[in-house]
Specification:
The complex is a heterodimer of chains A (about 190) and B (about 220). Chain A is mainly alpha-helical and about 190 residues long. Chain A is built from nine helices and no strands. Chain B has one domain. In chain B, strands 1-2 form a two-stranded antiparallel sheet. The chains are: A mainly alpha (about 190), B mainly alpha (about 220).
Chain lengths: ~190, ~220
């Protein structure tokens, strides 16, 4: 079993969910235009990932596994995440209006974010204990936020760059993402 | 004729990946080999056809308020079916695709087509739309996979092309995925003589009705 520190380094730097596992590319490209929206989306993702694991892990361990229904996990998890996101939205609106205002827009966008489903499935595949699974979800959420924040900085420079007409917009964004991903490859030596 | 149009639009004109910019995650993640791209594309096509068929049949039954969870459960059901089939008949591909097989559930192409097309159209056009979009997705995954495998591993469909040329490993690494996709989108735009998309956009995004452009994909 990994220590908490190696878990953190693996999740955030060496196996960054966006830049080396390719999950959550749509929000990474769509919402990373400004630092403020990157932070909002990142915070919402950390929150939902931790809460989703809090529910999906016990459902898997206590209901699906004892009844030999593990093949139903994709259906069960996505349903839990979809319902859960709507529930969180309603509760936040009622109980914590300031937090709802900050995260509100980004919450519904998370239902179909493959990073959330990906993390809950990976927690099971890696055989983490409950505590580790929650920690891992938080770290992966932080990795997602880090990638978004770094990339929003790169993109604000891209806006003013002089790019050939064919590459303007999405193609240049993808190539910039490739260079950011190269820089993260350097961390892979950390965990040998 | 119009039915044929529903089928053919997805192949190139409205190609979901290269023009619609949907389903980016599998496009980048599993295209290290052309054969994986092909397998992923066909698996997605199968799910897309079945979910379009189901959703267009049930479009009058599903209540508006809970349509998103309903669509997701239908899609997840077919994904589980595909998982079983691949696990049983093609275990090599099953292992290569890994988590991304389950993640077909949240592929925005499938939800996007359910929301934009199948929930508004009759059964036959919906199935043809699913087939066309799925094959368009397969085509772009196969192209991506071919480029990355030839440049990054010196092979194509597992066949070694040349022993002498040293392959550029960076192309099968994550960074190469972003780079190749960027170049292919640019090339497609050049060939079509269009300006490249400036933004990801809300067309086809299943969440567009909830978020109404506030997620800043549009700005």
């Amino acid at each position: 079993m990994k220590t908490v520190f190696t878990l953190m380094i693996t999740a955030i730097l060496t196996d960054n969910i966006v830049l080396s596992k390719f999950m959550g590319i749509c929000p990474f490209l769509g919402v990373s235009k400004k630092l403020s929206s990157s932070l909002g989306m990142g915070a919402a993702v950390i929150f939902v990932m931790a809460c989703a694991t809090l529910v999906t892990y016990p459902v898997y361990a206590l209901i699906l596994e004892p009844n030999n229904l593990t093949y139903l996990r994709t259906v069960a998890f996505i349903l839990i995440i979809a319902l859960f996101v709507q529930l969180v939205e309603i509760i936040l609106k009622k109980v914590m209006p300031p937090l709802y205002k900050a995260l509100g827009v980004y919450l519904p966008l998370i239902t179909t974010n493959c990073a959330v489903l990906g993390v809950t499935l990976q927690n099971i595949d890696n055989g983490f204990s409950f505590g580790y699974a929650i920690l891992n979800s938080v770290f992966v959420g932080m990795a997602f936020t880090l990638a978004l924040i770094l990339f929003s900085g790169v993109r604000s420079r891209l806006e003013t760059a002089d790019i050939p007409a064919t590459f303007k917009g999405v193609p240049s964004t993808l190539i910039a993402a490739s260079i950011v991903s190269v820089s993260f490859m350097a961390f892979s030596g950390l965990m040998s | 004729m119009s039915n044929f149009k529903e089928f053919s639009k997805g192949l190139i004109k409205e190609n979901p990946t290269l023009v619609g910019l949907l389903g980016m995650c599998p496009t980048l993640a599993i295209t290290t080999q052309a054969s994986n791209g092909l397998g992923m594309g066909l698996a997605t096509t199968f799910v897309l056809i079945c979910s379009n068929l189901m959703i267009s049949l049930l479009k009058n039954v599903i209540p508006k308020a809970v349509k998103l969870p309903c669509y997701i459960v239908i899609i997840a059901g077919f994904v589980t079916l595909v998982e079983f089939l691949l696990h049983g008949y093609l275990p090599g591909l099953y292992d290569a695709l890994g988590t991304f097989l389950s993640l077909i559930t949240v592929n925005c192409i499938i939800l996007g087509r359910a929301e934009m097309f199948a929930s508004k159209n009759k059964v036959l056009p919906s199935v043809l739309d699913g087939l066309g979009m799925g094959l368009g997705f397969t085509l772009s995954l196969f192209t991506m996979g071919s480029f990355r495998e030839i440049l990054g591993a010196g092979k194509w469909m597992g066949i070694t092309l040349s022993e002498e040329i040293q392959p550029m490993t960076i192309f099968i690494m994550p960074a190469g995925g972003f780079f190749v996709l960027g170049c292919i989108i640019a090339a497609v735009n050049k060939l079509k003589g269009q300006k490249p998309p400036e933004k990801i956009g809300c067309s086809g995004c299943p969440n567009a009705s909830i978020c109404a452009g506030k997620g800043e994909c549009e700005k």
